[in-house]
Amino acid sequence: MSDEWAIVERAFHAETARAYEGLFTLGSGYLHVRGSLEEHLADAPQNLEYTRLPADVTSEKFPETKAKWGTYVPGVFGRHPLLNAEMINLPWFLGLVPIVNGERLEVEKCRIEEYRRELRLDHATVKRRLRWRTKSGAAVLVEFERFVSGAHPHLCAQRMKLSADRAAEVRIEAAIDADVRTNGYDHCRRVKLRRMGTNGIACFVVIDGGDAIEMQTRVGAPGCEWRYVETPRAATLTADVKLTGGNDFIVEKRTVVATSRDLMVRSATDWMRQVEALSFEQLYAEHLEVWHKRWESCDVEVEGDQRSQLALRASLYHLLRAHVTNDDRVAIDAKGYAGEAYWGRYFWDSEMFLLPFYLYTDPPRARTLADFRVNTLGGARENAKRYGYDGARYAWESDAEGNECCPNWQYADHEVHVTADVAYGLAHYARGSLNDDYLSGSAAETLVETARYWMQRLDRRPGEDHPSLLGVMGPDEYTPISNNNAYTNRLVKFALQLAATVGEVGGASPEECQAFERAAEGLPIPRHEDGVLVWQCEGFDTLAEPRFEQLWHNRGRRFAEQVPRERLYRSKCLKQADVLMLMMLFPGEFSDAEVRRAWNYYEPLTTHDSSLSAGVHAIVACRLGLVEKAWEFLERSVGVDLDVEAGGASEGVHIANAGTIWQMAVFGFAGMRTAMQSDVLTFEPRLPAAWSRLAFPIAWKKGRVSVGITREQITVTNRGDATLRICVGGETHAIKAGQRQVWTLLGSDSQTP
Ligand code: BGC
């Protein structure tokens, strides 16, 4: 078994328990569960009530409990009294505990002689094996495994195998615990538990958002008689068995979840019935088959460096897990359904950092993300109205209805670029999937409505003959209220032009479309008087110097944790890529000299406090031939979730970072141009020194392609059924369906900016 497919926890440490919980999240799209230990930890109560305030999540501190349970069904939102709608943490169903000769398994307190837990990425399974020397002297081998079924997305299957070196009395407990909170808040309005038959528990919960949740657990073990114990918000099944020395004892636990917002209206009983006749092995085999197909569509192979290979696969695993197949009523929240830090809300991350991965590996998945925005036009219209505008204004932090939920005015009011990013995402889906009709369907109305919003949001300053976008926050959230942010203006120009093109189908008059076009033309991109340096916004150069040398004492921690926000806001320091993000998206519009100038100016001012920054920098660095720099950025991103000591995925997986890790490999080191950037599939590879080979599949405009890159050559196989045009080394070629072509790569990488 190769380590490039498994993330392994070799010993238990309370300090890293939360990070592993996030990292080991399992999910089927429909249902997600953090990787908590089946027996849980002592002194880690899950019903703590506390108040999160509208603080900046980037520098916010979370309550220091050792463990944080998390069970999430995308789209199940409730109302928080201060922080607006948030995704709900549902009852915890993983509890499965052995008590041997009166001693309860607790990894911190018991004598554990051997411990290994792993997330198998290819199998989407968490397995744990531990050898426990009980106080009674018995050595007990405990093996757990669990998966949230790819084939039956409402089901989580668990198994525990026990064997002891001598006879022992064992008690098994299997529970559902509904005494949980979401971000310290209790959203449950009603909880009802009951016994089901001899070996089941049913749990009904109604949450304040109005949805009803139904869970059912069934346990199975040979010869067990289960007793049922209920406390106000939890229910446990208990059985006593005798272990004979040397024999395995296996307990299975199956839990199914159904909610009132499910696409397919079935009760938990129906879901349970569907899997009743299937053995654990059969369920597992079906699950593996689904995951095998998923991996085939997207696996990125790297030779030469295990860590980046593992990080790529970990990223792909979470991207595959977090996407809800065929459900366009939800997108992917910023923590990839693995934590509550961002309240389960949807950001621009969706269009810019996630959609490309799905689009170029499994386009129907990108479609649901695009459709989500079209479906939430109603919410976007409401947002516009609330701000006093016509048209549609997409939320900086969206719930499943498209409502603005961000409790911080800086972002909610000013980070308006998301509305243009949505337009870019719709166009990207249409072009990448060769589905141009998409933009003349209901997406056209969405585009027109967003354009109408922009027309009212633009200002015309006295004495100027062009419109301006005033009072905006660009991607760099440390420059909160700025005028004519280059990124925002260019994206708005794109959105207005697109709306002008499809406007008439979307309900706009020809005059309106002309007005969109005129406004787009006039939006300025501020520049230095040398004409080469693009300013992030007007007056950027008049901000204070950031004084990193004096103020950023601990470079291992974010700048924002070490200075007050007031200083961030008045200084020339960037949280993340802004002008460089613009240049990454529109590479053809900026010369190498302009990109290099922007790199030299902005990169030293950038804190990379957001995990969305490194990927963009790596891709731009590759364009500039700064492959070593790009590599440094990749290394940074690789650790974001994998470095458990640094906190990693404690509060959820950084799913946009996962998306950029894929982008770094494909758009950066392989130098692929997106469908927004080129009509012809184009590669300009620059492998980092540590990689001897990079290989991946790409879905390109209804066709499929396999790409293999070494330092010397690039091999492209056309797996589609039409001739493929491809550009390598600046020359365009044609590859017939089913054929393979190899090109020798020439030239060396320049390292000087
Ligand atoms: C970043 C945003 C991002 C958000 C959610 C913030 O820290 O600055 O660009 O959308 O996190 O990932």
Structural summary, described in words:
The structure is a single chain. The protein has 753 residues and is α+β, with helices and mostly antiparallel strands. Among the domains are: 226 residues, Glycoside hydrolase, family 65, N-terminal domain (Beta-galactosidase, Chain A, domain 5, Distorted Sandwich), CATH 2.70.98.40; 180 residues, Glycosyltransferase. It contains 19 helices and 27 strands. The strands form 6 sheets. The chain has a 9-stranded antiparallel beta sheet with strand order 1-9-10-11-12-19-16-15-14. Helix 5 packs parallel to helix 9 and helix 9 crosses helix 11. The chain is globular and about 85 Å long. It starts with 5 loop residues before the first strand and ends in a 9-residue tail after the last strand. The C terminus is likely disordered. The site of beta-D-glucopyranose has 13 residues, from loops.
List the helices and strands and how they pair.
Layout: E1 6-9, H1 17-23, E2 26-27, E3 32-33, E4 71-72, E5 77-80, E6 84-87, E7 96-100, E8 103-104, E9 111-120, E10 125-133, E11 139-148, E12 155-164, E13 168-177, E14 188-196, E15 200-207, E16 212-220, E17 227-231, E18 234-243, E19 249-259, H2 268-276, H3 280-298, E20 301-303, H4 306-322, H5 349-359, H6 363-375, H7 377-386, H8 409-414, H9 417-432, H10 442-457, H11 486-502, H12 510-522, H13 548-551, H14 565-570, H15 579-585, H16 592-602, H17 613-623, H18 627-642, H19 655-669, E21 681-683, E22 693-700, E23 703-710, E24 713-718, E25 724-728, E26 731-735, E27 740-744
Parallel strand pairs: 21-25
Antiparallel strand pairs: 1-9, 2-3, 3-4, 5-6, 7-8, 7-13, 9-10, 10-11, 11-12, 12-19, 13-18, 14-15, 15-16, 16-19, 17-18, 20-22, 22-23, 23-24, 24-27, 25-26
Helix pairs in contact: 4-18, 4-19, 5-6, 5-9, 5-19, 6-9, 9-10, 9-11, 10-11, 11-12, 15-17, 17-18, 17-19, 18-19
The structure holds beta-D-glucopyranose.
Beta-D-glucopyranose (BGC) binds next to loops.
